[in-house]
Amino acid sequence: MESPPLRTGQDPPGAGAESTGKGAPAGAAGPPRAAPCNLRGRSVVRSYGRSQGHCSSGRVCIPHRTWLHTHEEVPVLTARGLTKVYPGPVTALNGIDLDVPPGMFGLLGPNGAGKSTFMKILAGLLEPTSGTVTLDDIDILNDAEALWPRLGYLPQEFGFYPHLSGEAMLMHLLSLKGVDAPQGRRQLARDLLERVNLRFAAKRPVKDYSGGMRQRLGIAQTIAGNPRLIIVDEPTAGLDPEERIRFYRLLSELAADRIVLLSTHIVEDVAVLCPRFAVIREGRLLTVTTPGEARAAIHGHIFEGLVAPEDMPQLRAARTVTQALLVEGHNRARIYEPSGVPPAGFAPVPVTLEDAYLVLMRLGSLPGAALAASGAGPAGSTPALGEGPR
């Protein structure tokens, strides 16, 4: 099925059109190629526009929409009391307090938990009912123009013009974002496609792209301009295992020197990518923890056994069942047993993050855990794992 057209208010560009960033017609020679500034960690020119800036090295800084920061700056995304109530009333977010540190950070929760609402507010696409959001102490809800040059956003649903090639589509998106480079947008688009491993399909129509290729094209526009904050909403949904692994590697690379906020309902995404994550349910933040801490909280309390289909209702009524997979006519059930003593026919098994997540969803907490929720907002504002609502 072809994707819906991009709603931009502008006509799509021609597949062969090229912009040099100087207003030159297609095919005209662009400005001379400049050596990029390589003074990482030192104060250099901050450039949001398209004019060239010079740093102390005498070289010309690439005029992407970048914010080059010093080692002394520690980017932190902070939400305080974030609430969103829709008419009805329907409370999508209920007083979210969260600090997101540099690197990869996961937001895990079931569909309908409020994750996409949270992401849209952070991206400046949705106004909250109350609360504040700051990035490096800048109130981005009241000063969206300070956010947008430093934001890369890959929404859960997005559309491309299906008849355009990947390269032409990306050039159009770069134009909409106002991102340019001395060598021109075409070369910049090719460089971005190379980074996401799509150079081989640059001339192929987007309608012929696989789901994973479309996601990588979305990531290419997301990272254009070297944003400080990248928000990706359900990026691996619908991808086959090979594409998912490739996408994991790409996201991991992007998190090396910026904040990457990953929203997902897939536990594997968090287990593979996120050294720290938050769990949200029904608009409330249940916990902020690490995969290791979450598994340790229920260590020795997960058991597995074979159960006849007719015995499953009784087991579910008496025990906390986290999984039940049908194997050769029997259910291979995994249960959480707080006493640590398994019922007959069950044996202890290694704990997975999915076990911890499902127990948390069933009970609202992981009993017996005493984990500090550093990074979860002000002291006492966010429940540590094991202290959430029941």
What is the gist of this entry?
Helices cover 24% and strands 23% of the residues.
Tell me the major beta sheet.
6 strands, mixed
**Estimated radius of gyration:** 24 Å
Distance between the termini: 43 Å
CATH class designation of the domain at 77-282:
Alpha Beta
Overall shape: it is globular
SS content category: alpha/beta
CATH architecture of the domain at 77-282: 3-Layer(aba) Sandwich
What is the chain-wise order of helices and strands?
EEEEEHEEHEHHHEHEHEEHEHEEEH
Sheet with the most strands: spatial strand order: 8-9-10-5-11-12
Helix content range of the residues, please? 10-25%
**Stretches with pLDDT under 50, minimum 5 residues:** 1-73, 370-390
Q: Write the CATH fold name of the domain at 77-282.
A: Rossmann fold
What is the strand content? 15-25%
Please state the average pLDDT score.
Answer: 77
Question: How many distinct helices?
Answer: 10
Write the CATH homologous superfamily of the domain at 77-282: P-loop containing nucleotide triphosphate hydrolases
Describe this structure in words.
The protein is of the alpha/beta class and 390 residues long. Among the domains are: 77-282, P-loop containing nucleotide triphosphate hydrolases (Rossmann fold), CATH 3.40.50; 300-350, no CATH class. It is 24% helix and 23% strand. It is built from 10 helices and 16 strands. The strands form 4 sheets. A 6-stranded mixed β-sheet has the order 8-9-10-5-11-12, with helices on both faces. Strands 4-3-6-7 form a 4-stranded antiparallel β-sheet. The protein has a 4-stranded antiparallel β-sheet with strand order 14-15-13-16. The longest helix has 14 residues, at 241-254. It is globular and about 70 Å long. Mean pLDDT is 77; it is low at 1-73 and 370-390.
